[in-house]
Amino acid sequence: MNGKMHSETGAFSSDGMRAEILNPFVHKLELDNTYDKIKTAIFTVILLPFRVIVICYLIVTAWFLACIGLYGLSEEDLRRKPMTGWRRALKPLICFIGKMSYLAGGMAITIRGRQASRQEAPILVVAPHSSFLDSCIVYATKMSSVIVRKESMDNYVGKLINYTQPVYVWRDDPNSRQNTIKEIIERATSKEDWPQVLIFPEGTCTNRSCLITFKPGGFYPGVPVQPVIIRYPNARDTVTWTWEGPGALKLLWLTLTQVHSSCEIEFLPVYYPTEDEKRDPKLYASNVRNVMAKALGVPVLDYTYDDCKLAARAKQLGIPGATAAREVSELRGQLGLERSQLELQLAAQGSRARWVAPEEFAQRLGVPYNAQSQRLFDIFVQRASGMVYFPDYLLCACFLSLQHSSIAQLLSYAFKLYDQSCGGRLNLSSFEEVATRCLGLCQEDALHTFRQADLDEKGYITYDEFISYAQKKSELSFIFASDTSHHKPKAQ
């Protein structure tokens, strides 16, 4: 049987109608039966070592050639003018070796259509972006210049990336976006013979179930672009690398233990922008996305990289409904659930039932029992009971309302939500609920934390007591950061 790729949630398209597709940031890969497991184990022993050795040899060879080609050139030289002469003549050889490294791993790369020249289309727009293996597009496009995070250069493939004469992005630099757009415009409109600029406008990896919002950076120059689509038509999807799913090493292992896999790269006709699109990069990006989605046969969804970060942060902390954070936010908006109503629901929680059925869930929200409220219920439902633990919904709603605030502020609500007496005092059981849902702690770490914070051994702690304790612990410093998207909760 084939591996399964599925999602815990659905999603909504930009017009508010339900799109029966996968959550774009979730990928689940399973070895379905004993046969698959035995086959994978056998190929791990007899096939994987050989492939790894050959691939390493090819990559080292390509890296060595890149080092030769870059000899005597500084980073500033690479950004000032395009390579010429013998340095440029090395590119076809490096591309050939790169393609051979994929073939050595059992992946055949098929190219359809014709790559336009730089004069026809200075920019190549590639989607969907779903895997680190998408890097094969660099070899397939004769080493076009990629948009790359500067921190990604601190590894052994840095020389190969530098050989494409990339456009650098410092993702945490507040001026990086403007500087990147400026450099893309300069490259695309230059009279010099630069390589084509290659962009992945989605900005993050998805599971290819849809095309998410295209970032407009590559469309600011207002020049023609060539859309390029990538497919992986394999029986088992061992390449998709999303925020929730198998890690890179597991995917690489499972891919290299397949007898054969394939990647299809298709060059679509050059897209020439209208005057309106030249004036509006977002419109230009949206229309190109529509063309690519039609060619792929998938819908478009207005999800962004920021939505991905929000879901990742929620999952990291243990927030209920984390992977559907964007959808929960959309549903709340469609149901007219504003912040003021959330405050009323929080205030009334203590005197109400904690477990609710679908109709009561809608009643508690003060909204009609319809498709939207049912979908919101389904996101938080406990399968064993068929009911929703209402504090879990309220906590997720608080997280979305306070997403730019510190975790400490979220905790102030959580202490009230999970205390059945509504006094803001949590016993061990209630604190474990909060710690696993707001702090990303496991049960053992939550128990240890509770015992340390309960100095008087009263059997409960208040919010103020916990905050006082947390302020003295460096491993809990993330609680007080105003933006924890780059801070991972640490277990004690």
Structure description:
This protein has 492 residues and is α/β, with parallel strands linked by helices. The protein folds into two domains: 11-303, Glycerol-3-phosphate (1)-acyltransferase; 307-480, EF-hand (Recoverin, domain 1), CATH 1.10.238.10. Helices cover 45% and strands 11% of the residues. The protein has helices spanning 34-46, 48-70, 75-80, 85-89, 91-104, 136-140, 158-162, 176-189, 248-256, 275-279, 281-296, 305-317, 325-334, 339-348, 358-365, 371-380, 390-401, 407-417, 428-438, 443-453, 463-470, and strands at 11-12, 18-19, 107-112, 123-127, 145-149, 167-169, 197-199, 225-231, 261-267, 355-356, 381-382, 387-389, 425-427, 460-462. The strands form four sheets. Strands 3-9-8-4-7-5-6 form a seven-stranded mixed β-sheet. Strands 10-12-11 form a three-stranded antiparallel β-sheet.
Short description:
The protein has 492 residues and is an alpha/beta fold.
Report Rg: 26 Å
- The top-level CATH class of the largest domain is Alpha Beta
Tell me roughly what share of residues is in helical segments: 40-55%
Counting H and I runs of at least 4 residues, what is the number of helices?
A: 21
Estimate the strand proportion.
Answer: 5-15%
Cα-to-Cα separation, first versus last residue: 42 Å
Q: Please, how many domains?
A: 2
Low-confidence region ranges = 1-21, 484-492
User: What is the overall shape?
Assistant: globular
Q: The CATH topology of the largest domain is what?
A: Glycerol-3-phosphate (1)-acyltransferase
Class of secondary structure makeup: alpha/beta
Please summarize the sheet with the most strands. 7 strands, mixed
Number of strands: 14
Mean pLDDT: 86
Oligomer: single chain
CATH architecture of the largest domain: 3-Layer(aba) Sandwich
Order of adjacent strands in the largest pleated sheet: 3-9-8-4-7-5-6
